[in-house]
Amino acid sequence: MTMSLSTGLISGMDTGTLISQLIQAEAGPQTALKARLKASETAASAYRTVNTTFLAVTAAAEAAMKPAAWNPTKATSSTSSVAFTATAGAASNSLTFTVKQLATSHAVMNRNTTPGTWTSPTSPYGAAEITVSDENGVASPTKITVGGTGTLADAAAAINASSHGLSASVVQISSGEAALRVVSKETGLTSKFSLSGAGTSTTNVDAADAVIVLGTPGTPGAVELSSATNTFDSVMPGGTFTVSKKDEIATLGIAPDSDAVYATVQSLINAVNAAAKTARDYTSNAPGSTATLKGDYAVSSLGSRLLDNVTAALGVNGSPAKIGIQLAKDGKSVSLDKTVFMAALKDDPEKVRAMVLGTPATTDADGDPVPAVSGLADRLLAVAKGASDSATGSLVALANGQDGLKKGYQDQIDAWDLRLAKRKETLTRQFTAMETALSSLRNQSTWLAGQINSLPSAS
After folding, report:
1. Within this chain, do residues 46 and 155 fall inside the same structural domain, yes or no?
2. Which of 213, 211, 160 is nearest to 185 (CA)?
3. Measured between alpha carbons, how far is residue 146 from residues 138, 152, 161, 202 in Å?
């Protein structure tokens, strides 16, 4: 059992503080281990922070290598009432049309004109089943059963729960009359339907297709195109548009989107600069630097390799400067000149693409082999993956290595906890024994003094 001491009752020493100081002195190796553990945790976090920026380079390079990144299209509409989108690679095109009518859903009003019959949602519907017929008057083989207590509200609920694609609600026409309004969930001519059950059903809104007119409406050369919905997806190859306002004249256009290509390459350059800066900041050797990975060449060299690969010549295609990519004067970042890039993309888009994506191996006019040339994205992807790949990446390995050190340090710290606890127990026992011995000596001294004092004195 461990005893706790504060101040020795016999010796008068502050034994609790003395034991704590002795334990603190003996815990020096553990304190050093804790410092190493903290350093490993900090280093592991730093490696993973740098790794995150290289993962961003990987993602940006892979995005630049997708075919869709090199044939993006820009869809334009002259009016906000016509929403227009185009797929990547769609051919340049334009179209002007007039919106003649919008697509509508068929609606039916089911009423019972007998006074006092349908006065509220709780009024009896008056029939156990409802039959739904399509636009051709053909009744569905499945009838709708009115459940509950057979009220008008129950009829609406039964229609809503059915598989006929209808939406029903009770409408309070006046204080003395309620009716059932049923609307198709679809639009277009094929959404027409009719009801038979209780009361009388009449068309409330007639179903219609959306119609646009190519050319001048009302002239012999005008062409009408229809859609069951307000969306047209086969009028312009590669384009889809949705109309929302009648009598609107719209002009739509599809054109290559050079700005999107520039944005893709700029995103790659931004990712490179961010990764290079992070690697440089974490490994800085500048006077007074407190960088976590100060002087770590394995990390600093990765940032340098990115910058080298983004500015080095691209084989027969020449320097990236031809498309506006240049190293800054301080050598710490690269830039992409939009004016130069856009001009190169306009003059020779295939060459720009080849410089970023590379060219495959081919043969020349004489049949001699021409080796493949890696593009900018290929080279940067190789560097980034070499650093950040989850299985083989160097930054991942460095972070995992620190994790291994952390475990080793923690195991040693835990062992020291047990050792120091045992040592404290021993010291406490020793000081307790000392106090007990001093107490015994004190008692003996007191007894002897008493004995001496009790001896007869010489007269």
Report:
1. no
2. 160
3. 21, 9, 10, 20
Residues 368 and 315 placed together within one structural domain of the fold: yes
Residues 274 and 420 in one domain: yes
Distance CA 298, CA 282 (A): 12
Banded model confidence at residue 421, pLDDT cuts 50, 70, 90: confident
- Mean pLDDT, the chain, as a whole number? 89
pLDDT surpasses 50 at 5:
no
Q: Are residue 155 and residue 62 in the same domain, yes or no?
A: no
Contact between 266 and 336 (Cβ < 8 Å)? yes
- For residue 407, give the nearest of 22, 111, 33 by alpha carbon: 33
Per the CB < 8 A criterion, the answer to whether 177 and 117 are in contact is: no
Do 370 and 251 belong to one domain? no
**Same domain membership, residue 200 and residue 67:** no
With a cut of 60, say whether residue 4 has pLDDT above it: no
C-beta of residue 250 within 8 angstroms of C-beta of residue 230: no
Please indicate, yes or no, whether residues 80 and 66 belong to a single structural domain of this protein. Answer: no
